[in-house]
């Protein structure tokens, strides 16, 4: 059975996509797929002054990386398109005219200087200037509510700049329903008469948004909390057009890691984490902003993290595949309050996903790093290394630090570890160990462990007196996985060579 759920993600192409926008897209996607619905991308590019040429492609690339594709988008299944607002200008002009004819809107010719004077006059009386029923027909403001039809047409014909304002109703309590926040009441007396259309032929966000949502048959508007103050106007616009309004759901803000306030790029720059999904280069300034992809995060870990910023599954489960998120997602479990972003938790998610990745795919990511360091190894050997170290890694970039000793002899030895573990008599023990190692025929981890531990026991000394200097000899530091696995991996000859080198170094 076909679903009538249709949701949209409608970003403005004014720069890179903030992770708050990605989360909005994700929640729309999850809701659509949960209800067998349609997920739409609409590009809201009416603000040409802030338009950035590569921003639209960045949005599409970001969604592709996150694996949350659109069912309909510019150039894809544009059944109710076009899906760029700049290509729909005549539709907005037509509907601005309909509002003027029905009395829900009016022309306003006030200049910036006139409005500024009104604003200052109110401030002097310790009042806030709102362009609405208080003053729109008092005569100080210049609009079609006080001018004759002939004067209005004369101004338009001679090219005077104007805007079309919505005529907010007076003395009404507007009762609205939000799918997350419940019932919301607004006194229409506090609403200002928002601008809907300008004489340059371009609509504002409010008019274009409503017209597009109606004609694209949007059933649910799932968007950020910052649009909550616009909900009353949008509901009134649906009423003015005599259209059925979609259901609204306003998502909570993503907050700074410390303190209150919306997460910003400045927070990321200050605390050292990205706020964009992909790296972004400002074509005007050349500035580069970090991205989660380029910083080494897995896309599925990034998406999992975002899903839990403001949504609670109602269980202790934290790791979800995209398919599981679709099954479990419910707007009723989206919080009203802001969700604090945690860089540490984001890293934790990436580490958890590291463990779920197969060794072959991680090896493919690690090989270029080794090549860049001038190291050439058989893929099978590298895959064994990856299997041994990945549980301690957060990023693939961590592999080298965790595994350098698998590919090259130590060039130095941790000074603190040497001082503590290489004592008088240690060199003699290591020389004795060399004799034992040289006699081992089957140089496997299990066999070597049995033989060396039996030798240590026979000498009636503590295991640490041998094991710590041995690890220091092989690795250069007291790090790494199971010691006997390291011996097997680097092989008998390399192990002997490294022990001899460590003895010489500590003489």
Give a short synopsis of this structure:
Helices cover 45% and strands 10% of the residues.
Morphology call: elongated
Distance between the termini: 80 Å
Physical arrangement of strands within the biggest beta sheet: 3-4-7
Sheet bearing the most strands, described?
3 strands, antiparallel
Structural class: mainly alpha
> What's the number of extended β-strand segments?
13
Percent helix, as a range, is: 40-55%
- Give the count of helical stretches: 20
Round the mean pLDDT to the nearest integer and report it. 95
SSE topology sketch:
Layout: E1 6-9, H1 19-34, E2 38-41, H2 55-66, H3 89-102, E3 105-108, H4 112-124, H5 149-157, E4 163-166, E5 173-178, E6 182-187, E7 195-198, H6 205-215, E8 220-224, H7 231-241, E9 247-251, E10 254-255, H8 265-271, E11 280-281, E12 288-289, H9 299-307, H10 322-328, E13 339-340, H11 343-356, H12 359-372, H13 379-389, H14 398-407, H15 415-421, H16 426-439, H17 445-458, H18 464-475, H19 483-490, H20 492-505
Parallel strand pairs: 1-2, 8-9, 10-13
Antiparallel strand pairs: 3-4, 4-7, 5-6, 11-12
What attributes characterize this protein structure?
three-stranded antiparallel sheet; elongated; 45% helix; 507 residues; mainly alpha; two-stranded parallel ribbon; 20 helices; 13 strands
Describe this protein's structure.
With 507 residues, this protein is mainly α. The protein has 20 helices and 13 strands. It has helices spanning 19-34, 55-66, 89-102, 112-124, 149-157, 205-215, 231-241, 265-271, 299-307, 322-328, 343-356, 359-372, 379-389, 398-407, 415-421, 426-439, 445-458, 464-475, 483-490, 492-505; strands at 6-9, 38-41, 105-108, 163-166, 173-178, 182-187, 195-198, 220-224, 247-251, 254-255, 280-281, 288-289, 339-340. The strands form 6 sheets. It has a 3-stranded antiparallel sheet with strand order 3-4-7. The chain has a two-stranded parallel ribbon with strand order 1-2. Strands 5-6 form a two-stranded antiparallel ribbon. The termini are far apart. 33% of the residues are buried.
């Amino acid at each position: 059975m076909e679903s009538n759920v249709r949701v949209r993600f409608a970003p403005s192409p004014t720069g890179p996509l903030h992770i708050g926008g990605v989360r909005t897209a994700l929640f729309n996607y999850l809701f659509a797929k949960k209800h067998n619905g349609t997920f739409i991308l609409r590009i809201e590019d009416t603000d040409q002054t802030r338009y950035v040429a590569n921003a639209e492609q960045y949005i599409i690339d970001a969604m592709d990386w996150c694996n949350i594709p659109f069912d309909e988008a510019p150039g894809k299944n544009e059944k109710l398109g076009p899906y760029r607002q700049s290509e729909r200008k005549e539709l907005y002009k037509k509907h601005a005219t309909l509002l003027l004819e029905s009395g829900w809107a009016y022309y306003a010719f006030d200049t910036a200087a006139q409005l500024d004077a009104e604003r200052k006059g109110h401030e002097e009386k310790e009042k806030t200037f709102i362009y609405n029923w208080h003053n729109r027909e008092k005569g100080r403001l210049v609009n079609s509510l006080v001018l004759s039809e002939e004067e209005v047409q004369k101004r338009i014909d001679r090219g005077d700049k104007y805007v079309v304002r919505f005529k907010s109703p007076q003395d009404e309590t507007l009762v609205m329903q939000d799918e997350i926040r419940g019932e919301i009441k607004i006194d229409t007396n506090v609403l200002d008469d928002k601008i809907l259309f300008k004489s340059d032929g371009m609509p504002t966000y409010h008019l274009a948004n409503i017209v597009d949502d109606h004609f694209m048959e949007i059933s649910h508007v799932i968007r950020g909390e910052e649009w909550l103050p616009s909900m009353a106007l949008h509901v009134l616009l649906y009423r003015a057009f005599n259209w059925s309004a979609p259901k609204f759901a306003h998502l909570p803000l993503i907050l700074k890691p410390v303190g209150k306030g919306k997460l910003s790029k400045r927070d990321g720059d200050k605390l050292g984490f990205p706020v964009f999904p992909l790296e972004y280069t400002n074509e005007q300034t050349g500035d580069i902003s970090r991205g989660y992809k380029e910083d080494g995060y897995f896309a599925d870990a990034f998406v999992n993290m975002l899903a839990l910023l403001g949504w609670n599954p109602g269980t202790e489960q934290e790791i979800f595949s995209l398919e599981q998120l679709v099954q479990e997602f419910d707007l009723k479990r989206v919080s009203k309050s802001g969700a604090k972003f945690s860089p540490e938790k984001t890293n934790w998610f990436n580490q958890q996903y590291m463990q779920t990745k197969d060794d072959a795919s991680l090896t493919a990511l690690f090989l270029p790093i080794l090549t860049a360091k001038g190291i050439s190894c058989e893929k099978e050997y590298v895959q064994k290394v990856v299997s041994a170290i990945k549980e301690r890694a957060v990023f693939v970039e961590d592999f080298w630090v965790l595994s350098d000793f698998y590919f090259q002899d130590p060039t130095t030895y941790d000074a603190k570890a040497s001082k503590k573990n290489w004592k008088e008599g240690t060199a003699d023990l290591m020389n004795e160990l060399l004799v034992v190692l040289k006699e081992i025929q089957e140089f496997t981890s299990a066999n070597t462990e049995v033989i060396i531990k039996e030798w240590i026991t026979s000498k009636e000394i503590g295991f640490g007196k041998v094991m710590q200097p041995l690890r220091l000899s092989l690795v250069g530091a007291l790090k790494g996985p199971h010691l006997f696995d390291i011996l097997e991996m680097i092989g008998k000859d390399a192990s002997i060579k490294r022990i001899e080198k460590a003895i010489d170094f500590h003489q």
